[in-house]
Amino acid sequence: MTPQDLQPEELPHGAAARRGPFRAGERVQLTDERGRMNTITLTPEAAFHTHKGFLNHAELIGKPEGSIVANTTGQLYQALRPLLSDFVLSMPRGAAVVYPKDAGQIVTMADIYPGARVVEAGVGSGALSISLLRAVGDRGYLHSFERREEFAAIARGNVETIFDGPHPAWQISIGDFQDEVVKAEEPGSVDRVVLDMLAPWECLDAVATVLAPGGVWINYVATVTQLSRTAEAIRADGRFTEPESWESMVRGWHLEGLAVRPNHRMVAHTGFLLVTRKLADGVTSLALKRRPSKTEFSQQDLDAWTPSSVGERAVSDKKLRRAARDAVATTQTRGHVAPAVDENTAGGTADETADDGSVEN
C-alpha cells in the first residue's frame, strides 16, 4: 500500500489538509506580479481588497493549489498554501517566534525523532511547538509548559490551524516549568527537553530529574550573558556532558540573469542554541582540560539578566487579546471548536491588515 492509497483518516495528523483543492477556512498565500505577498484566510463571503481592485475568496475555494487568479481590475495573483516557514512568520502572535532557521536546528541537533517524549517550556505563540509536533509524530509526546494563559491560547489556535484540529501528541500546561514538570512527568521518563526562556539555569534540577540518561537538553537564549551563565551552571552541576553552542545565519541570494549576488539583507542573529546530554545516575561529568578563565559572576552580572536588560520587550495586554482572538477565530472558521477565549482575555477587530497595508474584509 502506498501513501496515495490511504484514506484521509489514516494519514498522519494534518496531512490531508495539505492536499487537494483550496477549502473554506484555509490560509492562502497570494503573490502578485511584483512579488508582493499577502496571506488571507478563505471565507466564502469575504474579499481581498487592495487599491487595485478586489478578489472574492469564493473564486479561490475549490481551485487547485498553484492556480493563478485575477481580481476585478485584472491584477493577477498566484495562490499557494503557506509553507511552515511562511505560516510561522505570518501567524497571530503575542511574543517573538522561534525563526524557522532555529527551529530546524533544534529538531536536528536535539535529535527529535518520531515517537520521542519531549517537554518544552516557553511556548510563546506556538511556532516551535509546531515543528516539534511534526518531528515526534502522532505516536510521540510533547508536553508544553507556558506561564501565561494568553500565550497558551494563541499557541493552541496556531497549532490547531496548521494541523487542522487538535494534535493527539500535544498537551499544554500553565505554570512554571521547574515546578510543574516534576509533578507531571516521571523521573527519567523524558527523552528531550527544549527550553526557550530567560533563565534556563534555574531549571537544572528539574531537567536532571525528568530527563533519561543520554537524553538531550537544548536551550534557546538571546544574549551572550545568558549563554555564558547557562553553560557555566551546567558545567558546575556535573550531571551533564560538556555543553556545546552555536548560532546560525541565513542569507538569501538575488537571482536574475547574470546578476547573481548575495542579498543586501539577511536573517542574522536571532538566538544562541546550547545543547548538553544527561549522564547516567551517579556519574559525574569529565573535567575537561582547558585554560584558566574567569567563570565567576558579580552582582552586576546577575542584575543584568532582567527582561528589559536583555532586550525583551513587554507585550501589551491589548495585543495579546487580539492575537488570541485571531488564532482561535481561524480554527473556528475551519469548523473546529477551539477552547473558549473569554472576552476579557481575547480582543481584536473584524478587519485584518495585510502585509502591504491593504485590508481584508
UniProtKB/TrEMBL annotation:
tRNA (adenine(58)-N(1))-methyltransferase catalytic subunit TRM61 C-terminal domain boundaries: 89-254
Region spans: Disordered: 1-24, 306-361
The enzyme's E.C. designation: 2.1.1.219, 2.1.1.220
Endpoints of the signal sequence: none
Molecular function, one GO term: tRNA (adenine(58)-N1)-methyltransferase activity
GO biological process: tRNA methylation
Classification via PROSITE patterns: SAM_TRM61
Record field: compositional bias (Low complexity): 14-23
Keywords: Methyltransferase, S-adenosyl-L-methionine, Transferase, tRNA processing
Main enzyme class: transferase
Record-linked CDD domains: AdoMet_MTases
InterPro entries membership: SAM-dependent_MTases_sf, TRM61_C, tRNA_MeTrfase_Gcd14
Keyword S-adenosyl-L-methionine tagged: yes
SUPFAM superfamilies (UniProt xref): S-adenosyl-L-methionine-dependent methyltransferases (SSF53335)
Acidic residues compositional bias, start-end: 352-361
Keyword Hydrolase found: no
GO cellular component entries: tRNA (m1A) methyltransferase complex
Protein name: tRNA (Adenine57-N1/adenine58-N1)-methyltransferase
